[in-house]
Amino acid sequence: MTNPHVFFLFLFLFFRITIHAHSNIEILIRDVYPFDGVLAELKCPLSVYIEGNIIKELCSSAIPASPNMIQINGTGKTLTPVLIDVYFYMVFSSLTNDDLSSRSFSMENLVQRSSEGAGNTIMREFTTIRDCRGAIFPIQALIKEGKINGQRIWPAGTVISQTGGHGDFRAWGERSRRLFGKISKTEAIEANYIAVGTTEVLTAVHENLRFDMAFIKLMASGGIASDYDPFDVSEYMLEELKAAVEAAKDWGTDLLFNSENGNCQIELILKLAAWFTSNEILKLITHDNVQMLKLSGRRSPYQGESGLIQRGALESIILIEGNPLVVISLLTDFDHKFLVIINDARFIKYT
Question: Is residue 137 part of a domain?
Fold first, then answer.
């Protein structure tokens, strides 16, 4: 069986030494109603010109077409920025507890299952995620290479947990690495670092940061999904938490503590409709969620504006049949209403 750490390191080095040039693709979407990510109403119909992965022009007058330009009729349709999920588990929404406890489950299995999950998620229009747990770097590398469909990912990498904490997913028979010297199965597939004391917490934080993780995820309270800790407990001592925060701050990024959350994005969006207008919901999952991504600061894997339809912004966009500012439930009919999805100069969907 391939050593999971060697496999992970190979993909990391492959990604680091490869130059990723965006395609020179040119796209012109004519007479479309753009939702800019902020305003409560759609603008008048505009033509939107995209070159590579950048929105170059928006204007009400005609834009000349070049011979190689892809032209899309946007009449009666809405152009939105990326939908962004800032608390998502790409790896662990694709796995079961049986997978994690299986002796034969390997890093290769993890990458295969998570790659399928990445493709399913992006077809639901979420083209950017803040991934909060797991060995996401191999999947991120495959997406950036164009080998699989997937999102722009702001990764936390391996979650950090105390012994018996919310991130301790060892089987009952697995003993403490600190006392018995044997690494657990979930640690071997980069699911968690069980770190005790400030020295181990700092080591775990820096281990993530050396792999270019965008932020740090640390379990600081009990949870529903974990076996060993009651929901109401506080985890880690103050000095351990302070050490993690300072280490993240030194690298110009932020640290996220755990909260219980599902991966049913569309259902959660519809629940918001009881309290918010359609415009407020769409703004929340585009422009507002970008502000969370910006907390990664210098560790952000993507530079440039996103979550907006404006000149110079990154071009991850979705063309929707109808107006979601009027009918927010259009977001639930992604098979039929999402006509075009473009992410990083690649067509994810084009009907």
Answer: yes
Query: Is residue 165 in a domain?
Result: yes
pLDDT digits (tens, 9 = 90+) for 211-235: 888 999 998 877 777 777 777 788 8
Is residue 147 in some structural domain? yes
Residue 9 confidence (pLDDT)? 44
Which CATH number belongs to the domain containing residue 157 in this structure?
3.20.20.140
Positive or negative: CA dihedral 111, 263, 128, 126: positive
CA distance readout (Å), 149 to 44, 102, 342: 32, 27, 11
According to DSSP H, which parts of the chain are helical? Answer: 4-17, 97-101, 107-122, 137-144, 177-180, 185-188, 197-209, 238-250, 265-272, 278-283, 289-293, 334-337
| Number of domains composing the chain | 1
Confirm whether 188 is domain-assigned.
yes
The Cα 140–Cα 319 span in angstroms is 24
pTM of full prediction above 0.90: no
